[in-house]
Amino acid sequence: MPIQHCIVHAIDKPSSDQPARLIPAGNELAVSSLVEDLLSRFNDAYHAKTKAWGHFVDEEAAAGPSFAQLLYSYLTGDDDHAGFSRKVAERLLPLVDAHLSVSGYLLCLDYRQGETRYLSLALLHQREGFGLSDSLEVVPAAQLNLSRMSLGLRINLTQWQDGKASRHYLSWIHDRGGKKLADDLAALLGATEGIDATGETQTLLKAFSDYVEQEDIAEEQSREKTETLIDYANEQASRGEPITLEELSELLDEQQPKAFYDHIRNADYGLSPEIPPDKRTLRQFRRFTGRAGGVSISFDSHLLGSSIEYDESQDRLIIKQVPKQLKEQLKRQS
User: Fold this and answer.
1) Are 151 and 185 in contact (CB under 8 A)?
2) 3 exposed, middle or buried (CB, 10 Å; 0-12, 13-18, 19+)?
3) CB 301: neighbour CB atoms within 10 A?
4) Which is nearest to 5 in space by CA: 84, 66, 65, 64?
5) pLDDT the model gives residue 324
6) Can you tell me where the transmembrane regions are (predicted)?
7) What is the pLDDT of residues 65-108, one digit of tens each?
8) Residue 147: phi, psi to the nearest 5?
């Protein structure tokens, strides 16, 4: 991931009742293997977070240039990386005062991943740790706590500049405990959510379950296809990239690469062609299977507790919504 520009500004917040102040960096960081490793670890931490996905809507701000306008000035060369990031840092100070009570470091990265250019911004905090000196004595050692990141965003600059109808080139951290901070950050960015990653991921998994049932796919094949879907979705999530329905369909069935894609379109699930994967939803999805004494049972884990219940005390599995094909067979038999 070639780094174009990287800078870190300090935001000093002495206490919760004192205003935050900016201590701007004098120069950009020189790109090194250590900085590249930081970018890699930062991306891992950021992609693991729950995020909102959207796009800019506030291109004209009455109180001054919008974030999108500042970004445009930077990309056209009217402002350099240090100046642009300093202006952004100044705008973030009220958010720090309103929601955070500790100092931090604003990391601003402009980098490429393949053919795509990204801009990432995040407020990082330090934690105290321990290290060993050359004489093997225990010494204090401060380190950046990437897992504690509560304010961060990433922009797909290539997608935004292309001017295409994408509604999810911008993402920002949207943890459950920091909803107000996330909402205020979106307002500062002049952004709105363009796609519900959690809802779209849930709908995709529902479409897959329907597809497996409709096609009457054998248990072993069903398990293999489930693993293929989850592996692909998790790989895309770890890279910060969306699930592409056509690509997923090709992976699920090489002999009929359009089968799953056609199923989605014909059933009109309302899914976007590209879906930002929600890792929490993916973690909850797997298939329970079992075979014994002439009985074979297989169902998706997200059905447990809704249409399927397990009574552990009496060792019973209760199916509330019997599949249509099975229901018809039972009626004919009775």
Assistant:
1) yes
2) middle
3) 14
4) 84
5) 77
6) none
7) 799 999 999 999 999 999 999 999 999 999 999 998 888 999 99
8) -70, -20
Quote the CA–CA distance of 30 and 188 in Å, as a whole number. 29
pLDDT at 62: 43
| Cα dihedral 93, 14, 38, 136 in deg (nearest 10) | 180
- Give ∠ CA 184-187-189 in degrees, rounded to 5: 110
Helix (H, G, I), strand (E, B) or coil at 271: coil
Orientation angle between helical segments 67-75 and 179-189, nearest 10 degrees:
60
How much of the chain is helix, strand and coil, in % rounded to 5? 40, 30, 30
Residues in CB range of 185: below 8 A, 6 or more apart: 95, 151, 153, 172, 173
User: Per the structure block, which two tokens stand in for 39?
Assistant: 């970018």
Structure tokens at 210: 């329907």
Residue 97, Cβ density class (10 Å: 0-12 exposed, 13-18 middle, ≥19 buried): middle
What are the backbone angles phi and psi of residue 240, rounded to the nearest 5°?
75, 25
Among 66, 171, 157, 169, which Cα is nearest to 112's?
A: 157
Could you report the per-residue pLDDT of 167-178, keeping only the tens digit for each? 889 999 988 778
**Model confidence, pTM:** 0.78
For residue 314, give every residue at least 6 positions away whose Cβ sits within 8 Å of its Cβ, in sequence order, or none: none
Q: Please say whether the beta carbons of 148 and 100 come within 8 A.
A: no
Q: Which residues contact 134 (CB under 8 A, 6 or more apart)?
A: none
Cα distance between residue 134 and residue 256, in whole Å: 62
Give residue limits of the domains in the chain. 3-195, 197-284
List of the chain residues with pLDDT < 70? 58-64, 164-165, 286-287, 302, 306
pLDDT of residue 260: 95
